[in-house]
Specification:
Elements (H helix, E strand, L loop, with lengths): L12 H10 L3 H13 L4 H7 L1 H5 L4 H9 L12 H7 L1 H6 L3 H9 L11 H8 L4 H12 L7 E7 L4 H12 L6 E7 L5 H13 L3 E5 L5 H11 L5 E4 L5 E2 L3 H11 L5 E9 L5 E5 L19 E4 H6 L11 H10 L7 E12 L10 H4 L1 H17 L4 E5 L5 E5 L8 E6 L4 H13 L6 E8 L6 H10 L5 E6 L6 H10 L5 E5 L3 E3 L4 H9 L4 E9 L5 E3 L2 E3 L5 E3 L19 E2 L7 E5 H6 L12 H11 L3 E12 L14 H19 L32 H10 L1
Parallel strand pairs: 1-2, 1-4, 2-3, 6-9, 12-13, 12-15, 13-14, 17-23
Antiparallel strand pairs: 4-8, 5-9, 6-7, 6-8, 10-11, 15-22, 16-23, 17-18, 17-22, 19-20, 21-23
Length: 704
């Protein structure tokens, strides 16, 4: 079920309005009792999955009935709201609550509850049949180039059963052109040598080396690397496992992109019972995110010549040796040569003391320190003035330093002069901006400056020497045109686009944004914006979400990490909101400025797409925080008076950018575009199997 873009549902006014009007009714109380007695609504689970509900101390059943189901939220782990509506569209047509329908009618009608957790996703989209395996083998035979892939397996006192499974996960590969290079780091458990010798006898593609003394993970990985003769090299931890189709997809990526130098895939975790959980569906190459966390991690395959030229794994970076290697290898590499396979091909075993477990930071604090040093040295080698500090959890935050001579910035603030909030917001910006070289250009349609109160407000603005009031004739209100006029009226090399409905939290907000927009190839930088109730309004924009674009992590409480930290980590994105966006003038002009056909909605999305097509990066940073009274100035997109215009702009964006909107490189195709919260997609937006011509496929399978 594709839920539409719903900025109106992002605040709690809707819930509170319905709470007042409906909860006293006898019917509502009956519905609450039905769901409570059904056993399918899990109150504790709902609050854990929806921290905004817990933050507001709302009753979870009430919230689900009044708003949650319409927002696509699930009542428990065994029932999917969107899945039920997809399977039974008549329920959606009738406007019924899906869980209520199932309990009252669906169960007796033979309808089934739909589960949409990761286990269900694996069952439906990530299991291979024998016929599937045959297709993979046939496709592998048809590769014009069959690269030899060397898998490094550094071993030290591994649990024997885990080591056996790791080795078997390589020998079971559907792509046959591999070698397994195992180095044992002077393990004290004699059972491991028996396992290794037996495996090498059974398969000549397995190579062994034994170290005389323990040298730790970096030295041991280098010993395994010395055994490698393949075109490409990857590392498998000694207790992890590869998916059986893993090396096929790496060889397939090499066949499609022969100049590939680094290739990585998605991953998940194996719990104590060997069950898969907690998938990490990654973005494509993300230069800012890799300085916040090693999201690339497993499995990463390098051209052997690249890894050898970099000097292999560095001693002294144990625990983050792979992060250090990645940063060194990417420094002189064109980003087009770093490829991402959006498939779960690596299973990372989670146990006490491993960095895959939730206690990983406490278990291995040296790993964080090594990662911080790797990032700092990477920045130093590139002559970037910055320092690394801890972020929440096990993450990193890079603080960039402004140049001594701060460039001039023009802060452009279009306003509709709704004094009930604009006085407070603009006063906050003027009072709490510490940046030393700034001018504020407040753009106003001259027809709005009629009342005595508005005239007094405008006159008051001009008393600040940094402020220029730019009167224009743009009626009806056209956000794009107002900004274009103001940017043309300034000669500042840096432009800040700022709504008149934001309030400053971080006093150094402009310093932080400018320091980032001055980084190499960065054209625009956006900020973290909160609703006044301290829930997220903007943590970056995802293309395709809700049809055109939507805000990631909408409405989760301030400080929550989101999906694998993505709600609190600096990162490259395809788009950030122009409610607070700093741009290089060069980039703004290179992209052609705002498209004035997009008067209100999606003008920033359109601009950001054109920016990236011109080769500019866009960064979102959580270090700059502001409150945003979203659409307080011009109204919500769902307001009746704006519905037709909004619909036209949606159509224009789909016609112009449909293919781009449906393939955001920073949002994995295994994640749902119907949810703001990074939930798995049913189905994913990519095929499970390799493609062969249908006639050829049938003939080859029958002959096989």
């Amino acid at each position: 079920m594709d839920f539409p873009f719903r900025s109106a549902l992002a605040n709690w006014d809707r819930f509170l309005d319905r709470l007042k009007s409906r909860t006293r009714s006898r019917g509502f109380k009956r519905d609450v009792a039905i769901l409570d007695q059904s056993g399918l609504f899990d109150r504790a689970w709902y609050l854990k999955q929806n921290p905004d509900v817990a933050e507001h101390h709302a009753d979870p059943v009430w919230h689900y009935l009044l708003c949650g189901a319409q927002e696509g939220r699930d009542p428990g782990p065994t029932f999917s709201t969107s899945g039920y509506l997809d399977l039974y569209p008549d329920v959606a047509t009738k406007g019924m609550n899906p869980l209520l329908h199932y309990v009252q009618f669906g169960h007796t009608e033979g309808r089934v509850p739909v589960r949409r957790d990761y286990t269900a996703w694996i069952e439906q989209y990530d299991q291979l049949t024998d016929e599937d395996r045959g297709l993979f083998r046939l496709a592998a035979e048809r590769f014009a180039f069959k690269p030899l892939i060397s898998i490094l397996l550094p071993v030290y006192n591994t649990q024997p059963e885990h080591l056996q499974r790791a080795i078997q996960s390589v020998t079971d590969q559907l792509y046959p052109h591999w070698e397994l290079c195992i180095s044992d780091d002077a393990s004290t458990d004699p059972r491991l040598r028996i396992i290794l010798e037996g495996a090498a006898r059974r398969d000549s593609r397995i190579k062994l080396a034994y170290r005389d003394r323990n040298g730790h993970i970096a030295a041991n990985s280098n010993s395994a690397l010395k055994l490698a003769t393949g075109d490409y090299v990857g590392v498998l931890d000694h207790d992890d496992q590869l998916a059986e189709q893993a090396l096929f997809w790496f060889a397939d990526e090499i066949a499609k992109h022969p100049d590939s130098a680094i290739i990585y895939c998605d991953e998940d975790k194996l719990d104590g019972e060997g069950r898969r959980a907690d998938p990490l569906f990654k973005p494509d190459w993300n230069p800012a995110l890799i300085l916040s966390q090693n999201y690339v991690s497993h499995l990463t395959v390098y051209r052997r010549s690249l890894i050898e030229r970099a000097g292999g794994f560095r001693l002294g970076f144990e625990g983050s040796q792979d992060h250090d290697l990645l940063l060194r290898c990417t420094e002189e590499l064109e980003t087009s040569r770093i490829r991402h396979i959006p498939r779960v091909l690596y299973h990372w075993r989670s146990h006490a003391g491993s960095t895959a477990s939730t206690s990983g930071l406490e278990a291995k604090p040296y790993a964080w320190e090594a990662g911080a040093r790797a990032i700092q040295e990477h920045l130093d080698r590139r002559a970037v003035a910055a320092k690394v500090r801890p972020a929440l959890g096990q993450f990193y935050q890079v603080d960039y330093v402004l140049p001594a001579s701060a460039p001039k910035v023009a802060v452009v603030i279009p306003t509709a002069l709704k004094l009930e909030f604009v006085e407070r917001c603009i006063a906050s910006v003027l009072r709490d901006t510490t940046y030393p070289n700034v001018e504020f250009i407040v753009t106003i349609d001259r027809s709005l400056v009629q009342s005595a109160a508005r005239k007094a407000f405008v006159e008051g603005l001009t008393r600040d020497s940094r402020v220029r009031v730019l009167l224009h004739d743009v009626r009806p209100f056209n956000y794009s045109r107002a900004n274009n006029i103001a940017v043309r009226d300034s000669d500042a090399p840096i432009v800040c686009l700022l709504n008149d409905d934001v309030e400053v939290i971080s006093r150094d907000w402009l310093d932080q944004l400018v320091a980032r927009v001055l980084l190499q190839k960065v054209g625009a930088v956006g900020a973290m914006l909160y609703y006044p109730g301290d829930t997220i309004q903007h943590a970056g924009v995802i293309l395709g979400m809700g049809g055109v674009a939507g805000h990631a992590f909408l409405n989760i409480p301030r400080g929550k990490q989101g999906y694998h930290g993505r709600a609190i980590l600096e990162q490259d994105l395809s788009c950030v909101t122009a409610a607070c966006m700093v741009m290089r003038r060069e980039a703004f002009e290179d992209a052609g400025g705002f498209d004035e056909d997009l008067a209100i909605a999606f003008n920033d999305v359109d601009l950001c797409i054109r920016l990236r097509q011109k080769g500019w990066r866009i960064i979102w940073t959580p270090t700059v925080e502001m409150y945003h009274h979203e659409s307080a100035s011009v109204g919500q997109h769902s307001a009746p008076q704006r519905h037709a215009q909004f619909a036209r702009e949606v159509q224009l964006m789909r016609e112009r950018w449909g293919e781009v909107l449906d393939a955001d490189p920073f949002f994995n195709p295994n994640l749902s575009l119907a949810s703001f919260q990074y939930k798995v997609a049913f189905p994913p937006r990519l095929p499970k199997l390799p493609r062969l011509e249908s006639r050829q496929r049938g003939a080859e399978l029958s002959s096989a």
